[in-house]
Batch of 2 targets.
Target 1
Amino acid sequence: MAITHLLYLHGFRSSPLSAKAQFLTQWMSTHRPHISWHCPQLPVSPLEAQNMLQRDIEHWPHHQMAVIGSSLGGYYATWIASHYQCKAVLLNPAIEPARDLKKYIGEHPVWQNPEEKIYFKPQYIDELQNMYVQNQNLPTSIMTVIAKGDEVLDWKEMTGRYPQSHIKLLEQSDHGLTDFEDHWPDILKFLDLA
């Protein structure tokens, strides 16, 4: 079944203005304008993000949709793919954000606009934990793009979390996948959009 709807989820402290999101928005509008493309600004609260996404894609044909998520967005994308049984592409996905983001409780600037601030509250840790997908419930149609050069997340932990996925392991690159465009053709093939 052809993909008709595609969702992109950015990472922690990121936004739809990130380099990957901007590239994808431009590429989709130029090359696949017939596909419904959605790249929302996610609320800081994981529960609010979860509720918003459920509303946004409520009427999408779930067997014809796919989700791409980067970092924390990859964690959310895992939940979406598990919940809706759709394809997912995870870019250096966060594995245990309830553990890793405890040290980020407080105020932080947004990467793309340092004047804009977010506040990460203590209760968000529980909200993240509640979205965790147990191993036996992991979706089967997943592609992971994982960089050994990721300076934020452990590539071994990422590959260990998704051993059954179609793994594209990069010897170099970085957390933000600054060479993302080089890997886009493989992602297109996985999504049957090539």
Target 2
Amino acid sequence: MSKLWGGRFQKKTSAAVDDFHSSISFDCRLYRYDIEGSMAHAEMLGRAGIITPEEAGAIVAGLREVLSDIESGRAEFSVEAEDIHMNVEQMLTGKIGAAAKKLHTARSRNDQVALDVRMYLRDQIDETVGLIDELRETLVEMAEKHLYTIMPGYTHLQRAQPVTLAHHLMAYVQMFGRDRERLLDCRRRVNVMPLGAGALAGTTFPLDPDFVAEKLGFEGVALNSLDAVSDRDFAVEFAAAASLIMVHLSRFCEEIILWSSAEFSFVEPDDEYSTGSSMMPQKKNPDVAELIRGKAGRVFGDLAALLTMLKGLPLAYNKDMQEDKEALFDAVDTVKKCLAIFRPMLATLKVREDNMIRAARGGFTNATDLADYLVRKGLPFREAHEVVGRAVLHCIGAGKSLDQVSLEEFRKFSPLVEEDVYEAISIRRCVEARKVLAGPSPESVREAIRRSGVGKARPENIGSRD
């Protein structure tokens, strides 16, 4: 098979080089975008009088046949044809003959691949945003059910203050909301049409890039041909956004792994999302969460690969840039698979509310509330902090919790303590009193749900103590 670019060469390419050079094994997934881009390009060439309307019509009709052949499995890709662009062109030539050779007029594979990747990534961003939306809806639905499910909040993985499971879940609604915003912001920069840049310096033909951009759904066209063919910032930006999604998934998975251990026993993963041990019959392992946690590093590696590939490249296109696709495709596939499996795993968790509140009652999580109680009685916070610290030390020695300390004992630490202290430091009161916006009280979480804009939640009919 002769190369489409072979006129300059006297020798055939080495078979080893063909194999090393070829990208069809992975860029074949771009076939639909390559064909749609070529159809718009051909139509534009016909409208501009660069080729005849009849030639443009034959090319478009032939490309539709090629698309049908690929999607039905009738077409076979060739390593010798190197990439998806040349494979499609050779298939088209087999369909319509000489007219196919005019398709590449005023176009290079450099601007063609930039177009294909942008169209592909635009769709993948939309799908990823959809998966994030579904996950956030699941989180909000769970939060609505657990407005009164009290659990310990942690700092340094030490029990700190009581919160609710709803409050904890809504923290991830915020995280994934930022991820959503980053993807949509990235999409704006993805959605710029590079076709017309040629190899690096445009073309002498009277192209109409605005027509192609409108035809393909792009919001704008590239304004510099050098940048248009060499820019992969958008791929790096997506991989960075995907890396943060994986950070958030991994953090949540780490908590689920901890919570499902016997030491916490806050949740139990459903059997459908757990595995066992080949040796230990009692085991129920949170393998889905562990695997998502592990796959985070894979996406980080994709980001590093893209950055490293780009960092030393002079303008404009260099063959190094062929390395963008496998890293980008892997980042896309991994983050989508992880989001898709994480949501049902989360939704089917069995929550052990009794163990959560039992843990919240331990570890002196109401100590800050005791200090606040003394402040309201007139003691400066720093003095109240010291008083409560001494009270906690006493409780540790006596094997008591703060709510088990007698009023007489409390007054040894501060005469300001009165009978109402027990209500002030009850675990439920500690949560419900934190009504500040962004706080853990049911009232505050209802407002956070309302402001999140997720789902159809209304503050007046979500959650109740009953």
